[in-house]
Every structure is written in structure tokens, then in C-alpha cells.
Design a protein that fits this description.
Elements lengths: L2 H7 L1 H25 L13 H21 L3 H27 L4 H20 L3 H22 L2 H21 L2 H11 L5 E5 L6 H4 L12 E5 H17 L11 H21 L8 H18 L4
Antiparallel strand pairs: 1-2
Helix pairs in contact: 2-4, 2-6, 2-10, 2-11, 3-7, 3-8, 4-5, 4-6, 6-10, 7-10, 7-12, 10-11, 10-12, 11-12
């Protein structure tokens, strides 16, 4: 393989690396998240929670689609920006107490860090800034929801979201409309993997996400990394087994391997150049890997 061939292959190594970083980061944050009492739901085993989660996603998506349709781009930027800010607040709420004791200084540090991170994303949304802070954001979200939902509710949620993702990309195509609207604003809620070293997200953007369209960079939604990572965290928190390296048990490790396998399948279809629903192969692989790891507990 020549140098150009190797360069073209690099993005397909970066995406699995991002997934692993988010999964390991969410596992590392799970204990601080629990210690800080950052739970999204009161009863982790409630089967109603996945439906509440889905309703939140549908509601947020509907609001963004309406704003895109009527051209309220500034409103979209503010809605997403405020959402990102508060997500960073919750993420830093798990990290800051490790460094600073309770009190006003802790609250001020969380707010300042969240404001700094959000401001950096909007004032200088270059691809590497988006990716670095996006990895932290994704790990924080996956950890919070992973410790908030038991394995059965998470598996149910992953199945529901995989079906929804397939319908929204291949049938209604509203997820493509949403992604294009967000990209037009250069809103930092997607991971960006450049195809060339000189690429600039600020100057070039991504381009259209239609079939056959040549783009300057690959993109993958944060949700495509967050959702599988939720099962990794949940498996580690709510199932038994030895914790290897003090970090993960077999069900969590199986879910990680399964998610990577699912991502490889997804990347195979991405090569066609057409928009792909990421969650069906990702969630399917993660669930299968979890089940294999869970069954292996009794044999190890």
C-alpha cells in the first residue's frame, strides 16, 4: 500500500480509537459520577426510563427541525450552546471534587471550566478542539446515563434507538436534514476526522451529506459513541464479576469489543459514500458483546 493509501486508511483507525477513548473515559468517570450523586433517573431498573430518554430525544430533535425549517439559525446555536454548557457543568461536577473540596470554590471552578470549554468550542471551532472536548463531553454523558440505567433498561434503550436511527436516516431522512442544518452552523456536536492535514473545519466546513457527495472530512455523531458506551458503563456497574485492571468486568469488556466490531461493520458501509445509520450495527454489536461477556462470568 502506498503513502496515499495509508493516509486514506488513517480516519478509519481514528474512529475506533475515539470509541475506545470514550468508553474508557466513561468507565473512569463512573465512580466520581456516583460519588457526586449525578443520576439522571431515580430507579435504575425502571423500564419506563428508556421511554423517557426517547421522549427527550424526540422532543429536542423536533424543536431543532422546526427551527431549521423556519431559518432560526441563531436560536439553534443558542439552544445547542446552552445544552453543551450544562452538559459540561455536570461532567466537571464529577471531576472537580477530586481536586477541590466542597464549597463555593468548587461551584465556581465547575462553572468556569464549563464556560471556558463551551466558549472555546464556539469561538474557535477547529476540528481538533471539537474532537478533544467532544471526547470529554461524550465520556461524561455516557457515564452519567450509564450509572443511571440498569443493564436491561439500557439494552431496551439501545434497541429502540437503533430502530429509530434506521428510520430517521433511511426512511424519513430527517436525521440527515438535522445533521446538515447543524453542520451549516459549524455547531460542535459531531466528531470531525479530516481527510488531509491542511483541513480546517472553520474555513471549509463539511459540505452536503447527500449520496455521492465528496467531503473534506469524515463525521460521526456524538450519539454514535455515547449510546454504546452507556451499556459498557451500566454493565460494569450493575453486573458482577472480577474487575480487570481495576477498571472493567467481562460484560463491560465484551460490550467494548462488540461495539468496536459493530463500528467496523459500519465503516464498511460508510465506504460507499452514502449516509449511514450508525446505531444499528453499533448497538447490535455492543449488546451481543455484552451478552457473551455476561455468559463468560461463570466460566472464569
Amino acid at each position: 500500500m502506498d503513502i496515499n493509501g495509508v493516509k486514506k486508511f488513517i480516519p478509519f483507525l481514528v474512529m475506533p480509537a475515539f470509541l475506545v477513548i470514550v468508553e474508557l473515559g466513561s468507565l473512569a468517570l463512573s465512580l466520581p459520577v456516583q460519588a457526586a450523586g449525578l443520576s439522571a433517573f431515580q430507579n435504575p431498573q425502571s423500564l419506563a426510563d428508556p421511554l423517557i430518554f426517547l421522549a427527550m430525544i424526540l422532543g429536542f430533535t423536533a424543536v431543532l427541525l422546526v427551527l431549521i425549517k423556519y431559518g432560526f439559525k441563531n436560536v439553534i446555536a443558542w439552544v445547542i450552546g446552552i445544552s453543551i454548557f450544562f452538559t459540561f457543568v455536570y461532567t466537571f461536577a464529577a471531576i472537580v471534587p477530586i481536586i477541590i473540596g466542597p464549597g463555593l470554590a468548587q461551584v465556581a471552578a465547575m462553572a468556569a471550566l464549563a464556560l471556558l470549554a463551551t466558549g472555546l468550542l464556539y469561538l474557535y471551532p477547529e476540528w481538533y478542539i471539537i474532537d478533544i472536548l467532544g471526547l470529554l463531553l461524550a465520556a461524561g454523558v455516557a457515564s452519567i446515563f450509564g450509572v443511571s440505567l440498569g443493564t436491561i433498561p439500557v439494552i431496551l434503550l439501545l434497541i429502540i434507538l437503533a430502530v429509530y436511527d434506521a428510520i430517521s436516516v433511511y426512511k424519513t431522512k430527517h436525521m440527515i436534514t438535522l445533521a446538515e442544518g447543524v453542520l451549516d452552523l459549524k455547531t460542535p456536536i459531531l466528531f470531525v476526522i479530516p481527510k488531509k492535514r491542511s483541513y480546517s473545519f472553520i474555513k471549509e466546513g463539511i459540505g452536503k451529506i447527500g449520496e455521492g457527495e465528496e467531503r473534506s472530512a469524515f463525521i460521526i455523531g456524538m450519539g454514535d459513541l455515547i449510546i454504546p458506551s452507556m451499556l459498557v458503563v451500566s454493565a460494569n456497574v450493575f453486573t458482577g464479576g472480577v474487575k480487570y485492571f481495576g477498571l472493567f468486568n467481562l460484560p463491560a469488556f465484551g460490550a467494548m469489543i462488540g461495539s468496536i466490531a459493530g463500528l467496523i461493520v459500519l465503516l464498511h458501509f460508510v465506504m460507499s459514500g452514502r449516509p449511514q445509520a450508525g446505531l444499528p450495527p453499533l448497538n447490535g454489536g455492543t449488546i451481543l458483546g455484552f451478552l457473551i461477556g455476561w455468559m463468560l462470568i461463570g466460566f472464569v
